[in-house]
Every structure is written in C-alpha cells, then in structure tokens.
Amino acid sequence: MKKPNILVFSGYGLNCEEETKFAFEKAGGAADIVHINDLIEGLVSIGNYQILAFPGGFAYGDDTGSGNAYANKLKNHLWKDIVKFISQGGLIIGICNGFQILVNLGLLPALNKKYGERQVALLHNSSARYIDRWVDLKVENKSPWLVGINKLSAPISHGEGRLYVSEEVLKQLKEKSLIALRYFKGEVCNYQNLESNPNGSIDNIAGLSDETGRILGLMPHPDRALFFTQLPNWPLLKEKLKREQKPLFPEGQGLQIFKNGVNYFANIKEGLSKNEIFSSLPVTNSH
Amino acid sequence: MIVRVEVTSKIIDSRAEVLKNKIKGLGFRNRIRDVKIADVYTLEKTFTKKQLEKITQAVTNPVSQQSYTKFDSKSNNIEKFLPVEKGFTLAIEVGFLPGVTDNVGATTKEIIEDLLKLKFKRTEGVYSSQLIFILGNLSKMDAVNIAESLVNPLIQRIHVKSFDEFMTSHGMDLVVPKVKIDKKPAVLEVDLDVDDDELIMIGKQGIMDPNGIRRGPLALDLSYMRAIQRYFQKIGRKPTDVEIESIAQTWSEHCKHTVFSDRIDDIKEGLFKAYIRKATEKIRKQKSAKGRWSSGRDYCVSVFGDNSGGIEFDENYLVTHKVETHNTPSALDPFGGSITGIVGVNRDTIGFGLGAKPIANVYGFCLADPRDSELLYKGPHYTQKMLSPRRIMEGVIAGVNAGGNQSGIPTPHGFLYFDHRYKGKPLVFVGTIGLIPKSDNSRILYEKKAQVGDYIVMIGGRVGIDGVHGATFSSEALDSGSPVTAVQIGDPITQKKFSDAIVKEARDLNLYNSITDNGAGGLSCSVAEMAKESNGCKVYLDKVPLKYPNLSPWQTWISESQERMTLSVPKNKWKKCLNLMRRRGIEATVIGKFNDSGKCQVYYKSKIVMDIDLEFLHGGLPKRPMLTSFTKPAHIEPEIPQLSNLSEILEEMLQRLNLTSFEFVSTQYDHEVQSNSVIKPLQGRGRVNGDAVIIKPLITSNKGLVITSGLYPTYSDIDTYYMAAASIDTAIRNAVVAGANPNSLAILDNFCWASSNELEMLGQLKKAAQACYDFATAYKTPFISGKDSMFNDFKGFDEHGNRIKVSIPPTLLISAIGTIDDITKSVSIDLKLPGDLVYILGDTKEELGGSEYYAYWGDKFKKRYIGNTVPITTAAKNLKLYHKYFICVGKELISSAIGIGRGGLGVALAKKSISGLVGLDINLKELADNNKRDDFALFSESQGRIIVSIAPQNKEKFERLMKGCSHTLIGVVREDNKFTVKGKKGNMIINTDAMHLLKNYKKTFKNY
Questions:
Q1: For residues B361 and B527, what is the distance between their CA atoms, to the nearest angstrom?
Q2: Do A223 and B895 make contact, defined as CB atoms within 8 angstroms?
Q3: Crossing angle for the helix pair B278-288 and B759-779, nearest 10 degrees?
Q4: B657 pLDDT exceeds 90?
C-alpha cells in the first residue's frame, strides 16, 4: 500500500511543523514540510498530496488577529488549489494556529458548503492571557479524523482560543453535528483540579469539522500528546503501573488522530469507495 | 493621503474586560462603568475607495468586529463608529513614538502589499495604535493618569480626548509617527590632541556634535582614551567619529569583560582565566584521561570560544547553552528589555557553530517587591520617574512571554527572586539551549571560519537609531544621562523567519562559512569579530538597508537594531543564498567582503571612514590592574522567638515571594512546543513549581536533558565564597535529583555585580570566582559559558527628592544542564502513594545565615535579619551522596525527590505534600543535625540535602545502597491529607493539611 502524502505548511511564524510531520510519519504517512512561498511560486503543488496539515504556531505574531494574515495570504494565492483539493476528497487538519487559519480562511465550519466565508471566530482567551495547560476532550462527531476515539487529553497553548459564534450559527453547528470536540472535566482536569474549559470557549467547543467531516480544526495539540511521558501525571501513572508490574503505555493519546488521517486513505485503497466511507458518516447525510 | 482604519469588537472583548478591571484596580473602582478597545491602523498612502474597502475587510473579522474608516481630517459619520450605545467619557489613544518597532504596523503593511499586489514607497507606511474608550465618572486629568499607568513614555505616545472634543473634532487626530532626520549624514573628525579633561569628557559623555551636544556615553576611561590618542598619533591622522564609536563598542565592559580579564591583585591572568576557564581545563584533563567512551569522559566540545557553550549530547549531537542578562534596558522599558533579551540570546544559539536550533529557553527575574509603591526618580526635582516594581515585574514577564512564545521555543524553566535592592535595576536573566548535529557529510558543524573573499551578508531586520549606544550604556550605572535610544522592542517573527531559514535549510545546504549574531555593538562588533577569522574586512556602510533615511555612518555601524545576523557567504553561493532568503521573506544584503588585510576598513559613499588595524581594535585596550580588599562582615545574630506551634509559620513561609508559587508565569510561557516536554515546570496534582525540568531534545530518542539553576544573593551579605558554593551545589543537586547523571553535567556562570570599581566589591567578586574554581573542580563539573554584568547600580532620587544609590546584592546565577539516558527514569517531586517512606539524605546543620527564615522574622519586626552562619557546602561529601542517589535512580527505587533549598526542610516537605496532594507524618527525632531548636531544623538551608520517597518494599535495597552516606527515615505518606510534624522531643509542632498548605502556597500571586 502506498503511504498517503501529507503536506505540512510552514513559514511566517508557524512553528509546530516538525512535530506534526513526525506524528504523521509515526502514523505511517509520508509527510513533507513545505513553505507557503514555495507553493505560491509553484515549486511544490498541492495536487501531489492527500492531506493538508496546518500546524500550530504564531503566524505573523498574531498581528491583526491570530491566523488572519496567513489566511489572507492563502486566499490571495492558493485559494483555487485549496478548493480543488477539497472537492477531490482530500483531508485537512488545522491545529491551534492552524485551526485559527482555517477559521479565518472560511474552511471551517463552512456551513452550507460556503467555503471561504468566515462564520465563527477564535478570540482572546477570557483571561486575555496566553495559557499553556492540559485539557480533556470529548469527541462529539464522526469526523474521519476522530474515528475510534471517545475522549483524549492533550495540551493547549494559545492566547486566542475562545470560540465565538452567533446563536444562530451555534444552532446550525449542533444540528449538523459540526462540533467535533468539547472540553470536559476528565482525567487530567481531575488530577490537577483544573476547570474543564480553559479559555471561555462558547459551549465548551474545542474543535470543529466541516460538513464532510474531512476538515478538522482544534485548539488542543495532539502533536504534543504523542508519548506517555508527555502526560502531566505520567510519573504517578508510571509508579502505579510499575507496582502493579504492568508496562508503561506505548504511546500518547494524540497519535490516533494522525493514524486516522493516514488510515482513511488505506481504507479507500482496501476497496471501500470514497462514497461509501463518506456516506457512513452522519455529518455528510445531513444534506 | 492619510487614512485611519478603526476596528472594534461587536461582542464582549476579553481584552477590554481585563483592562477595565486593571483600571479599576488603579483606584477608580467605583467610577468606571465600561471600557472598549479599538485597534487602529493609520495608513499613509493613497488608495482608491475600493482598495480601502478591501483593506478594511482584510483586517476586520466580520464575525466579531466592525470597522470604520476615516479619511484625512473630515469625518463622515461618527455615530456609526461609537462603540457603546451609551457613548463614552474619554478616549485615550496609545501609539508608538517614531522609530519604535511596530510589528502590527509592519504585518498590516505586508497584508496590504500582498492583497493589492503593490509596494509601499519608503516615504509611505502603516502605523498601529490602540484606542481605549472609557465610560465613567472621570476628568480628563484622570484619563492622563490612567494612560500614564498603562504606557511607557520612552516608547509610547498618548493622546486623550473628552467625549465633546472627540465629537467636535470628528474623532481622534491623524497621527503619523514617522522618523524624520533632517540632518544630512556626515562623518566628523574627532580631535584627540586635547588635554586629559577633554579626553575624560569624550570618554564619559561622548563625542560633541557640531550643535554642541554630546552624543552619549562611550564608557571609555582616561587610560583607554590615551591609548586611542597614541594610536592615532602613531599613524599620523585624526580619528573619525566612526572609529571612536567603533572602538568604544569593541572595548566596552559589555563586550570585553575587562573586570574578569584584567589583572586583579596578584592574579595576573585575571579572574576568568585563573578561576573559571582553569577549572574547566583541569576537569577536562582529568576526564580525558578516562578515554573517549568511558563513564565520566570529557564531553566538552566547544567551550568559551563561541556564542554559546557546547557539550556532547549523544553520539551525533551537541547541546549548547548560553545565559545572558538584559538588566539596564529592562529598567527603562521592561517589556522591550526582556523581549530583546530573550530573542537576543536565541541568536547566541543560532550563532553557535554554523547554527544550532533553539530547543528551550530559561529565564530568571530578580525584582523588587511588586507591592512596594514608593517611587524612584532618575532626575532631581521629581523628574524622570522610574517605573514601579509592579510595572517592571509585569513588563519583564510579558517580554519573555512574547519573545519565547512567538518564536516557537519552549520556555520551561525559570525563577522569580525578590529583594528590595533590585528596585533600581532589575536583573533579567534569559538563556537558550540549542541542538546541533556534530557534522554533516562534509563538515564539522560546530566550527566556522570566514574565508578571504567571502561576502559579508547582513540578514534580518533593517537598521535604525534604536539601540545606539546599547553596549557602552549597559557598561555604566543607570542615571539621568542614560540614552533613551538604547530602548528597543523585539520583532520575534522576523527572527523566526531567518532562524528557520538558517537552522533548517541554509546550514545544511552549505551556503555560508561563518555566522554570528548582531547583538551588542551591532555590525561594528559582529563584522569585526568575524574579520578575525579571515584577518580583515572591507565594509560599505551605504549598502546597509536602513529603516529610514539619513542615519549617520557611525549610527549605522554601531546600531543594535534587533533581529539581524551576519553571514560570511562564498561568492559562488551568494545567488543561491539570496534566492532562499527571498523565498523565506527575509531581507539579505551584501555589505562588504572579508579579506586578509589585517585591517577593519569601512567606507561610506566611496570615502574611507574607518581604517584600523584589527590587532589594535581587538587587542589595543590597555590593561587596568585592579586591587581588592575584603572585610568580613559581622551581623547581629537575630533573636528569633521560639514558638511551640510552627503550623502558621510554615504557612506564612509558603506565602513569601521567594518561596511561593509563580504558576501564573509558568502557564503563560509555552513549555510544550516542539513536543519535547518530559518533566514540566509545574509538577504533580498541586502544580508546584519544581527546581528542574526535563526535555527530550530529539523527538526520536528517549534520552533527556535536565535543566536547573541555583542563586542565593542574600548569602552574599555574609560571604560571597559560600554564596557561590551554594549556588553551584544547588544547580548540580537539583539536576541530579531529577535524574541527571552526575558525570554528565555542565554549568554556566552569570555574575551580576554592583560598583565593580570599588575595592570591597572586587574583593567579594574575587572570593566568589575562587569558589567557582574550587567547587567546579570538586564536583568535576565544567563551566562551559558565562556572561557578566558588573555595574548594576541606580543613581537617582527617592520619593522625598533625596539623592540615593541603590546597588544590587552580589548575585551569581549558576545554570546547569545534564543528561538522563532514559527519560522514563525521570524523578518528579510529588509524593506518589500512601505508605511510601520518606527519607532525608544529607545533614542538617544550624545554618540560617541569610536564610528565608531569618528574613521572615526580620520582615515581621521591620528589620533586616541576616545572621552569620551561612550554609557551608561540603563538596566531596555531597558528591559521594549524589553518586549513590544516582545509582538508586538507575534502579528505579526513587518514587519522588526534591532538593532542599531556600526555605529549608519545612518548605521542601510542604512542596512535596502539596504537589502530591497527600498527607505526611514526619518525625524530626532521628534527624542528623546539630540544631537545638525545631524551627532551626525545619528552616536551616544547609546544602547537599535531598528528600526522597520510596515504596516500602524497596526499604532494604535503598538503605543498603545508601550506606556510607547520611540517610534518615523521617516519615511516611498518609492515606489522607493531614500534614503533621513531630519535633525532636516528640511533641507535635506542625498540624495542618495539604489543601491548606496549597492555599497558602498559591495565595500571594493569586490575582497576577
């Protein structure tokens, strides 16, 4: 089976491209880090990839709003390529700053397939301060990126992660099941006695997908939850496992998201047509 | 045409809400009803209406924002813009002063250029500002007061309008803070055939411009001025201003570290060579004898010579470390000082060898109590007010936040330390750890050499007058003459762009032969430094890209405008290099050529303006032998009340600034980016600030790097020798406690001293340096890099207008790194499971001199309690203990551990209990000590001690392995939360619980 090709964006202050590439490769994919200017100059083509990943970072220093300037650049130069990529069934993921970019670019949530229209906003945290901590996430829809995951813990690290939507849009997000991930009080929050919602996000929303489910954006970093030793409570867990003479967990909970992205294409190759996979997802049945 | 685009929030704006609470806290609690913020972009360029619509859309989020555009001075529709239905009382606009780095403005310009496919001319621009609308019962004077508490007049401008003024003048004014230098650039000849008084004046206050005003400090004393005089007499011409300014930069204390390199008493080679470097040489020799792959071998690879120190991490990689200080700039503009500090030290990593990748930042802030509201002034008659300790604290914290977070470098380790003597000059320590492969196919990557014929290439930001005289200025005490142009703001994204291009692309494409940072002294230092490698250079200053026209050649040459590096690029690689930089959005310019002329020659518009022998430039500074004296201080032994119940004392100790949680700092610094965190800054259930962090430098390997530090300024009040010893022991111990191999450690020294021209201060310095030699060699732990800052004095006026001098206590930061072969064996501080046994390793002596406990009682009685019994570090004994402990770590016998440091055993036990959120039963009866009192036993700061907890089934094994070293079973982990301590006589002295301790531990900075 040929490994799917993953394009990990870089440049202008994006900074999680290396760990994102690592995660996709650990999951079995073949990932390239590509500077946005090399795409604009035509040195690399989006058409050669099955997955686009917008990693975390601080593109343009968050000036004029996080993700805004990078999204503008994509819109000015690569919009046609991206639309084509979506229509051909590719997968897209945006993590943290990548999520902010997708939202500003109008790829998420893209209600009623209005790709390119900004429908939600990611604003300054309610503390108006950058925050790095772990959160617990509950999976709320059936985006192919989240298959087989019920909940997971991962860190957030952002200044502008408070999702805001109008009531009308929120209603539609719920109806169409586009809320992919919600913050909840799980293992880590209980362990460290932290509030479940770290930034004041409306309805505890941590991640969204589009109506096909193939585009996922999330504030938390699964790329920073790849190893057992990244969990905040790993020393305690280790001590318990050791005394029960059990092995340590082989990997972090975040890796499954990258595996899902990679395996999605393997499933297609294994005989299921694209339509079969998509039609098995409620998110695509709604229209 | 000038246009204002004003963008405001349609919905609740958390920035405005937080600002509202902040203003309320300034004493306007009941008078503020509402606060709104608008982001303003002032465009100076002609656009069509359609273009303006597009621009407005590009900077407005339609979901949450609305915008209003104002052309020139006429307004169409004010009502449409009003952010609140109820209106507002006052509008305060905050913008930058001309020439101050405006990142938002620069990004917006880039957005517009990309959007409309056009280019701004050099006379056109975009400027950002923020407009704050306040609704409340306020006068215009109140608004000025509010604004003053929010802005820094050295870098920002404010403009206040009342509602009525705003309405009648149709909004705020159109302000374009553009730098205009009318004076044509010129080169002056400087007459040095003058008497000593004039030489002294030039050295102290600078070269006199034709208008009769002196340019600001050169920090050249008479002996230096005479040496320059003689040189130019010898070559038979007058120097230019470019030459004098350039020499002043190169010879500055900041760059040459003369206090550490000149003769001191009978130590001819100076303190650095005699103590710091010699220690490393001795240790390396001992370790080399063991053979290359033996345990405890020599792992130093590139020490003292480069921008950072580099040691072997594994077979293929080096790790580098460098810690800098940025004290003087941070006193004037805390945010700017600290952000340029952190991004500046990042460049010491990028500039190591052919370019190391920054993988972790560290920080340390020595500050005055943020609750201290008494003012200081730099000038007489209540002029040049200093910022308050709270403002300084918030600013320096925010600077590392912006610099570290935006650069995508984790900032996991750091500390805050408080003493009233840091009020005039805060200390801002910033450091960066890097990673670099030892070699690629063809080259060794940790070595570099500019070749004859290579182009001198400047990459990154442009040059302005910001940061002129930074190096010479930080070599002087801070007083009313300090130049404001020394203040700079960082631009982390510009740096991030070239950092990525260098470390992730250009280095591995072999596009350059050498690289160095443009830091202190700007081009004058970086180019002249690299010129040593080829033995000469020729620079054309008119090729240097400028931020605005009409900079004088001397300013261009020495400006410290941030985010620049200098590369040495072979002619045949230049095209490829330029193309790569262009594609990464980085400006790169050839500004000259390296040669082997033996000279540093600088041209401006085809005229030679500097022509100096490199030998003189680098080696011509005369030695200034120093003498020292030392008087052993004798302090009154404080009388400490003896209480039978110490619960409340422990709780209050946990609230002390130097012991309390600074979680609010740890969580606002991204410590997980690069996916390399293992032991995080906050540990356990109770999220306690640990003394060590562990990262995993290579994503594909389980080998870890431990990062720690040690610092005890109050011990300097008694004895700087044992101050240094304790700092070294603490940094080493905390690394070993977390799991580092004691045979793998390396340390860095950062001396921050005051009045280093006084005999006594030099005497104290000498003792501390001697301790560095003694203890580094005793612990077999080499120094690999260091930096010093010798004049941390404030000369000014207090709030009664009286002249005062505030000098910092002699401060030495020791930073340590070490490796751990398997990160799953890392040891965290939190107690794990009920029934676990708690041991103390090492002896507790009655050593409370300079302790937090004495200071605690001193504060209670409004006195300074120092005492005399400073902790005496016994290296050989401690080292033996650390090696035995390390064996236990290898066998995974240690469930948790913490080093005992500031606050002693009592505070360490409390932190263990808080972090695990489990109770403890402790009994001091068997404690190995000579303390007569329980409180002394609990709060003595004797070095070399560790508290560990182990699973009960490992008791025998553990005790067997620890045989021959002091180890005492002192307690057990409880099922519940209760925290009890029994004294030496068996009586209960502390009876509280973990939750209660946690509350006290988090109380002090709860609302920060």
A1: 27
A2: no
A3: 10
A4: yes
Task: Name which of A58, A78, A167, A257 to mutate to probe chain B: the one with the most chain B Cβ atoms within 10 A of its Cβ.
Answer: A58
As a residue count, chain A comes to 287
Closest CA to B314 of B301, B330, B305: B301
Answer yes or no: do A57 and B110 touch at CB < 8 A.
no
B742: DSSP letter: G
**Local confidence band at B77 (pLDDT 50, 70, 90 cut-offs):** very low
| Burial environment of residue B701 by CB neighbours within 10 A (0 to 12, 13 to 18, 19 or more) | middle
Rounded Cα gap, residues A228 and B924, in angstroms: 38
Residue B928: pLDDT band (50, 70, 90) is: confident
Q: What would the pLDDT profile of B400-442 be if each residue is shown by its tens digit?
A: 999 999 999 999 999 999 999 999 999 999 999 999 999 998 8
Least confident of A177-191, B61-75, B304-318, B574-588: B61-75
- The shortest C-alpha distance from A124 to chain B (Å) reads 6
For residue B486, the model assigns a pLDDT of: 52
CB contact B57 to A (< 8 Å): no
pLDDT of residue B611: 96
> Would you say how long chain B is, in residues?
1008
What are B837-895's pLDDT values in tens digits? 999 999 999 999 999 999 999 999 999 999 999 999 999 999 999 999 999 999 999 99
- Joined tokens for residue B520: 């202190």
Q: Give me the pLDDT at residue A276, please.
A: 47
Interchain contact, A22 vs B699, CB within 8 Å: yes
Please report the number of interchain residue pairs, chain A to chain B, with beta-carbon separation below 8 angstroms: 190
- Partner B contacted by A97 (CB < 8 A): no
Q: What pLDDT is recorded for position B68?
A: 85
Burial of B184 from C-beta contacts in 10 A (0-12 / 13-18 / 19+): exposed
Spell out the residues 6+ positions from residue B892 whose beta carbon is closer than 8 angstroms to its own.
Answer: A242, B825
Do the chains contact at A60 and B11, CB–CB below 8 Å? no
Residue B915 and residue B1006 in contact, taking contact as beta carbons nearer than 8 Å: no
Which residues in chain B have their CB less than 8 angstroms from residue A205's CB? none
List, in order, residues 6 or more apart from B800 with CB less than 8 Å away: none
- pLDDT above 60: residue B74: no
B674 contacts chain A (CB < 8 A):
yes
* Tally of structural domains, chain A: 1
B401 close contact with A: CB closer than 8 A = yes
> How far is the C-alpha of B502 from the C-alpha of B522, rounded, in Å?
19
What residues have CB less than 8 Å from B291, skipping those under 6 apart?
B297
ipTM at complex level: 0.94
Q: What is the pLDDT of residue B290?
A: 83
What are the structure tokens assigned to A82, written together? 């991206």
> E strand or H helix at A277, and its extent?
helix A274-279
pTM of the prediction?
0.95
| Residue A41 belongs to domain spanning | 5-285
B945: Cβ contacts below 8 Å, ≥ 6 apart = B840, B841, B842, B843, B844, B899, B900, B905
The b/e string for B382-403 (b: 16+ C-beta within 10 A; e otherwise) is eebbbbbbbbbbbbbbbbbbbb
Kindly give the parts of chain A with pLDDT less than 70. Answer: 1, 269-287
Q: Which residue of A has its CA nearest to B701?
A: A227
Complete domains list, chain B, with CATH: 2-168 (3.30.1280.10), 657-672+681-690+827-1008 (3.90.650.10)
Q: Quick check: A224 and B892 CB within 8 A?
A: no
Quick one: pLDDT at residue A279? Answer: 41
pLDDT at residue B472, as a whole number = 61
* Chain B residues with CB-CB distance to A125 below 8 A: 14
Q: Which two tokens stand for residue B464?
A: 């302005």
| CATH number of the domain encompassing residue A234 | 3.40.50.880
